[in-house]
Write a structure and sequence with these properties.
This protein has 183 residues and is an alpha/beta fold. The protein has seven helices and five strands. Helix 2 packs across helix 3. The two termini are 25 Å apart. The longest helix has 17 residues. It has a five-stranded mixed β-sheet with strand order 1-5-3-4-2. The relative contact order is 0.16.
Length: 183
């Protein structure tokens, strides 16, 4: 199984005085979904989002920060935590629980578009997924690796890409081949 160190190459050192990551509370309306986000659009309020909202409400807070990067003057793109964001939106807008309006966020500075998309895929490797989502993850990861090989030096060199994808995504090679064929 790949570790996080295997998955991510070392980023460039931060500029003098620049923090690589900071934690801040950001109003949920300033958080925007990613254009590359292909997971369920979280409109199923009878399922996972309602259950997650209930857990957040019972805990009295979001237990894990949403990862974001700044994309505008006062706007942030969600890298990971789309469902937590939707659960908070539900709690505030549907249940009128304003105490959840401000979301703890890990602000990632200096993250490229390619790395942001890759990290979004990588953070969703845990939990249950249907074959469509796994197929889309494989498609996007393969496209990123082919289009931006400099961002993924560990994926270059000898060996078949399908085997490297299988290892990266903790799947068997046959499952990756099958999902690629379906796509």
């Amino acid at each position: 199984m790949a570790t996080l160190n295997d998955v991510f190459k070392k980023p460039a050192p931060p500029k003098v005085g620049e923090k690589r990551e900071t934690i801040s509370y950001i109003h949920y309306k300033k958080l925007k979904g990613s254009n590359w986000q292909f997971y369920d659009k979280m409109d199923d309020l009878n399922g996972y989002i309602l259950e997650l909202a209930s857990w957040i409400d019972q805990a009295g807070r979001i237990l894990q920060p949403v990862e974001v990067r700044k994309v505008g003057i006062d706007e942030y793109e969600i890298i990971s935590g789309h469902r937590r964001h939707q659960a908070v939106k539900y709690l505030v807008e549907k249940e009128e629980k304003e105490q959840f309006s401000f979301v703890p966020c890990l602000i990632r500075n200096g993250l490229t578009d390619v790395r942001a998309e890759f990290e979004g895929i990588a953070t969703n490797q845990f939990g249950e997924k249907n074959d469509y989502i796994r197929m889309k993850e494989i498609e996007r990861l393969e496209a990123l690796i082919r289009k931006h090989p400099e961002e993924f030096p560990e994926m270059q060199g000898a060996g078949r890409l399908v085997e490297k994808l299988a290892h990266k995504m903790n799947m068997s090679t046959s499952v990756v081949k099958e999902l690629k064929t379906i796509s």
